[in-house]
Amino acid sequence: MNKMQALAKILITIIGVYWLAMVCLSILQIMVTILPHFCRNPHGMIDDMFGISLLVLFMIFIILVIAGILKKRDKIALKIAGSEEIKNVDAQIKWIPFAYRLVSVIGGMYCFGKSVGYIPMIIQSFIYKRQDTINYHQMNSIISLVILIIAGTYLICGAPHFVRWQTKKTIVMNES
Amino acid sequence: MEQNKQTLKERFAVVGQNQIIAKTLLIILGISFSLTVLAQCFILNNLIWELDFLTEFIISITTVVIFIAVLAAIIKFFIINNNWLIAKILPNEEPVENPKAWFTSSLRIGLVLLGLILFAKSQKIIFLSANFLIDLPKASRELITNIVQGNRVFENGFPYLQTYHLLMLFLMIYLIAGAPKFVWWQSKRFNA
Fold first, then answer.
1. What does each C-alpha distance from A97 to A80, A100, A165, B12, B101 come to in angstroms?
2. Chain A stretch 86-125, residues whose beta carbon is closer than 8 A to a beta carbon of chain B
3. Does A170 contact chain B (CB < 8 Å)?
4. pLDDT 10s digits, B12-44
């Protein structure tokens, strides 16, 4: 494992553990939101159960994604930093795409972690503000969640087009 | 005098790899602090909309002057003249080959990361800005009428926040695009 791969592995591990902790805190927040309401009105909760289960399942999916990233961090670091044979880390031309890919993966993990924060908000609005139509704030939360998931997925995959474009632009800027 | 200036420039020149990283981080921190100050200024203006026109006007002008002074200090010490701060943080280093290229690349990468973090933190501004753009003609009419009649500037405090959201959206897009003009300007000033 060369210097770049080690750096990528360290960063992925730190950020992954941080976001895993944040997700667990969010689950705690959901429980704090739901439990008092459930104790007061257990029958009313059954109507909301489908929506809540869906969101909880989504949250479990995010935990699995982050856990998967942490488990396969060696492979991901290898993909970000390139093959094992590249020993010359000083070559700037190889360093730039590596850094952009690392930045993309970190940004993606951040997006995934942030998306979890919207789930308690959505659940809360479903439970406490029973409405037939979706209001402005619910719509805002749902759109934010969708944007974060789409952007997060693209970035965690290494954002190939974005990395290629930025690398090209950086090299052009350095040459000029 | 000219020779003294030259010696100072040489003394504070950023040439080592760690120094370049520190310079990049200081610039990114500077931008981040500036955004926080800007946010506070808009939030304060958003809170005072309930006051009468004159009081709102006076408070707005005072806060804007104070915030501009703080912003100017941050921009000067973190973004424009940060070499002396780097000289204080880090000792002299072995010069790296082609430091300007290293600085340009690392600054651009750092700014892209800042843009992505801003996006993840405040992506809801995309939705809010779209709303604001739709409401813009109505808000402009309201602003002109209220200024002419000497009423409160706005019926509520949202236009201040919405202007901030719009600014943030443009900044976010610019940073994710790699802030080309800013990086070019910084590279031109590098060790100059």
1. 9, 5, 10, 30, 15
2. 92, 95-96, 99-100, 103-104, 106-107, 110-111, 113-114
3. yes
4. 666 677 788 888 888 988 898 888 888 777 776
Quote the pTM value. Answer: 0.73
Tell me: the pLDDT tens digits for A151-167?
A: 988 998 888 899 999 88
Q: Count CB pairs under 8 A between chains A and B.
A: 73
**Residue A92 carries which side chain, given as an amino acid letter?**
Q
Note whether B109 contacts A140, CB cutoff 8 Å: no
Domain segments of chain A as ranges: 3-175
How do residues A4-43 score in pLDDT, each as one tens digit? 777 777 777 877 777 777 777 777 777 666 666 666 666 6
Q: Do B183 and A173 touch (CB under 8 A)?
A: yes
Q: What is the largest CA-CA distance in chain A?
A: 69
Contacts of B157 (CB under 8 A, 6+ apart): B45, B46, B47, B48, B49, B50
State whether A174 and B180 contact (CB < 8 Å).
no
What mean pLDDT, rounded, does chain B reach? 78
Shortest distance between the Cα of A75 and any Cα of chain B, in A, equals 22
Q: Residues of B at the A interface (Cβ-Cβ below 8 Å)?
A: 98, 101-102, 104-106, 108-109, 112-113, 116-117, 119-121, 123-124, 126-128, 178, 180, 183-184, 187
Phi and psi at residue A172, to the nearest 5°:
-60, -45
Flag whether pLDDT at A2 surpasses 60.
yes
User: In angstroms, rounded to a whole number, what is the distance separating the alpha carbons of residues A86 and A89?
Assistant: 7
For residues A13 and B89, what is the distance between their CA atoms, to the nearest angstrom?
28
Q: In the predicted model, is pLDDT for residue A53 greater than 70?
A: yes
A53 touches chain B (CB under 8 A): no
